[in-house]
């Protein structure tokens, strides 16, 4: 079946511009997560959704970052007034909600470069 | 703030060597423990999901154990191969859906 998809796969933008990153989770997965990996760093948690609500936004690095999820499916991560330190690979993952394992299935990522 | 720790940070082994690394987590917040393998230029992929104290999981040459009472999990690789080179992440699931990743152990297997 279809896995998690993300678009675009690569994005180059000028400092100060806004960008929107999209994530399509696996159908039926109610939990959705956003992470980023900056150069030489590990996986940094940004935000997660249960359905359309985001119980934990603690990882968003600044108020320039926002995310939404509609219809319990597609999610968009928006970065306003991008800065060079926003350059990173942004990963989305989804999982089945509920008891038990709930391992995450990751998308291929969006590589964002801010020039 | 809950913290998941992994050690060592990086490891270089010769092909054929067996190796192991550790994931430590606060035992009071345990719901499930995941291990992921993250190859360069790819996305992390789940290796194991462990939920019960004493769990042992195996996939080929890779196995994992879990001790929820003392808050640790071990990942073992028997007879390391170059294709095992990757970063191995553990992640603690603390509730229905909150997941905290450790910083990872970077493994390089030298042919």
Q: What form of chain B results from the Cα inertia axes? A: globular
This entry's quaternary arrangement is: heterodimer
Provide the structure class of chain B.
mainly beta
Radius of gyration of chain A, in Å, reads 13 Å
Number of strands of chain B: 11
What is the percent of helical residues of chain A? under 10%
Task: Give the helix proportion of chain B (percent range).
Answer: under 10%
**Gyration radius over CA of chain B:** 13 Å
One letter per element, helices H and strands E, the order of chain B comes to: EEEEEEEEEEE
Number of helices of chain A: 0
Distance between the termini of chain A: 37 Å
Description:
The complex is a heterodimer of chains A (115) and B (111). With 115 residues, chain A is mainly beta. Chain A has no helices and 11 strands. In chain A, the strands form 2 sheets. In chain A, strands 2, 4, 5, 6, 9, 10 and 11 form a 7-stranded mixed beta sheet that branches. In chain A, strand 4 (31-37) and strand 5 (44-50) form a beta hairpin. The radius of gyration of chain A is 13 Å and the shape is globular. The mean pLDDT of chain A is 91. Chain B has strands at residues 5-7, 10-14, 19-24, 32-38, 45-50, 56-59, 62-67, 72-77, 86-93, 99-101, 105-110. In chain B, strands 2, 4, 5, 9, 10 and 11 form a 6-stranded mixed beta sheet that branches. Chain B has a 5-stranded antiparallel beta sheet with strand order 1-3-8-7-6, with no helix packed on it. In chain B, strand 9 (86-93) and strand 10 form a beta hairpin. Chain B is globular. Classes of the chains: A mainly beta (115), B mainly beta (111). Chain A binds chain B through residues 31, 33, 35, 42-43, 45, 48, 50, 55-56, 91, 93, 95, 97-109, and chain B through 32, 34, 36, 38, 43-46, 49, 51, 87, 89, 91, 93, 96-104.
């Amino acid at each position: 079946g279809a896995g998690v998809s993300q678009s675009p796969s690569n994005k180059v933008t000028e400092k100060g511009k806004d960008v929107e990153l999209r994530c399509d989770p696996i159908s039926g997965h109610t939990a959705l997560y956003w992470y980023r990996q900056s150069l030489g760093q590990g996986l940094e948690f940004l935000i997660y959704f249960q359905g359309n609500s985001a119980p934990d936004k603690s990882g968003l690095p600044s108020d320039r970052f926002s995310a939404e999820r509609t219809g319990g499916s597609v999610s968009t991560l928006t970065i306003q007034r991008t800065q060079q330190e926003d350059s990173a690979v942004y990963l989305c993952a989804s999982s089945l909600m509920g008891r038990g394992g709930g391992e995450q299935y990751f998308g291929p990522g969006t590589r964002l470069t801010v020039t | 703030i809950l913290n998941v720790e992994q050690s060592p940070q990086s490891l270089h082994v010769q092909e054929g060597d067996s190796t192991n690394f550790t994931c430590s987590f606060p035992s009071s917040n345990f719901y499930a423990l995941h291990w992921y393998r993250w190859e360069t230029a790819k996305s992390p992929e789940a290796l194991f999901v462990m939920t019960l104290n004493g769990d042992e999981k195996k996939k080929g040459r890779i196995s994992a154990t879990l001790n929820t009472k003392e808050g640790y999990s071990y990942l073992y690789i028997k007879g390391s191969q170059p294709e095992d080179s990757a970063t191995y992440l553990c992640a603690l699931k603390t509730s229905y859906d909150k997941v905290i990743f450790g910083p990872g152990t970077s493994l390089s297997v030298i042919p």
